[in-house]
Amino acid sequence: MSAEDVPGQFPGTAPTVALGTVDDHVERILSRLEPLQPYEQQLLDSLGLSVCEDIVSPMALPAFDNSAMDGYAVCFADVVGASRDQPVYLPVVGEIAAGQTKIFAMSPGTTVRIMTGAPVPYGADAVVPVEWTDGGEVQVRIHRAPTEGQHIRRKGEDVEPGDVLLEDGTVLGPRQLGLLASVGRAQVLSRPRPRVVVISTGAELREPGSPLGPDSIYDANSYMLAAQARAAGAITYRVGIVSDDPDDFASTLSDQLVRADMVVTSGGVSKGQYDVVKDVLTRAGTVEFGEVAMQPGKPQGFGVIGEDAVPIFTLPGNPVSAYVSFEVFCVPAIRRMMGRTPYLRPPVRALTSHGMSSPAGKRQFVRAQFEVDRGGAHVTPIAAHGSHLVGDLSDANALIVVPEDVTSVAPGTHVQVLVLDRDF
Ligand code: AMP
Ligand code: MG
């Protein structure tokens, strides 16, 4: 049977290929991708990136014994028993501020004024907070006794030289960056963010902010997909709109490849006559098009293009389909390139307020509102199903996942939910 004879397709369009289940397609994608090469990056540029070495501390933290309070360094034995009724008086023989470089020793029977973070002088084994004294500068009256060692932060009590601070694969957040800075690291070997080029196709599309003709629509997808890519950790280049002209599309794509670790297109992959993405990339021969057993998001294409074999995802044009496809296929791809695990968003269990039906043999992603209250996790499906309904999409904060073999879900039962906009 030639492609011309395939029922339900326009003449001359390629026959439909089955790409299997969502899991098959995810597997196909992940197996084609490698994590990006790590390099030494400045600490702040590494926020959210995964570290690619075990980081061993070159030093102790604290680096030296230092005072936890503003007060007076003392020999514990001198102040034992100090009280309001029986205060202890000591001569003040010096002062040490934080950042002080000279080494200071003191003898029993004396005291030294000391500031928070300043090195504790040799000979001292406790610090009396200023609040327990009269604050004297020549002689101090101490009316309360510390315990032995009190208010001294000991060298190495937090970190010892040689301690493993962060293991290979740790994602760097503010606290980890603070730790690296604390041990003097200015740079860290981390995997970069993938550069994701986002292109919308369609002769009907117009740029937001420009006038809209009677037969045109605004390009929602390139903004939405670029935002999804950025939220997943990528650097994004939103190219915007390319018409349905094959030469335009081919030349835009080849221009963009130099700066892309990944390309995402939307539109032009269904069974229409002007499906430019499918046209051009089918000729390239390195991108596979077909149908994944899912709803929404059935028409998918994935492959590599150009000399550097840059991965390309060709997502369907309907905004809801494009959104769900990006969440399900492109987010794991970005995470794999960044070396961030898990690649897939872990589903959570929730009680659904309403029932729903679902096509046999397809995994359905139902837009929904998810909420946790004292009764536990609840989810409410958003009524309509159309994959053009961007208003509904914006109201959703979750996707209910109805498995391939389930055709009907009863109200008040547990379902699996992907809670969106959360880090994982
Ligand atoms: P296509 O896959 O190109 O046939 O597009 C399917 C549907 O999605 C059509 O109704 C398009 O007008 C719409 N569509 C395609 N691209 C976009 C976009 N970038 N923004 C909003 N709607 C789009
Ligand atoms: Mg189109």
TrEMBL record:
Record-annotated membrane-spanning stretches: none
GO terms assigned for molecular function: molybdopterin molybdotransferase activity
EC number: 2.10.1.1
Cofactor dependence: Mg(2+)
Broad EC category: transferase
Alphabetically ordered keywords of this record: Magnesium, Metal-binding, Molybdenum, Molybdenum cofactor biosynthesis, Transferase
Pathway membership: Cofactor biosynthesis; molybdopterin biosynthesis
Limits of the MoaB/Mog domain: 197-336
Catalytic activity, as annotated: adenylyl-molybdopterin + molybdate = Mo-molybdopterin + AMP + H(+)
Domain of life: Bacteria
SUPFAM superfamilies the record matches: MoeA C-terminal domain-like, MoeA N-terminal region -like, Molybdenum cofactor biosynthesis proteins
InterPro entries: MoaB/Mog-like_dom_sf (IPR036425), MoaB/Mog_dom (IPR001453), MoeA-like (IPR038987), MoeA_C_domain_IV (IPR005111), MoeA_C_domain_IV_sf (IPR036688), MoeA_linker/N (IPR005110), MoeA_linker/N_sf (IPR036135)
Magnesium found in the keyword field: yes
Record CDD domains: MoeA (cd00887)
Functional note: Catalyzes the insertion of molybdate into adenylated molybdopterin with the concomitant release of AMP.
Family indicated by similarity: Belongs to the MoeA family.
Record-linked NCBIfam families: Glp_gephyrin, molyb_syn
Annotated protein name in UniProt: Molybdopterin molybdenumtransferase
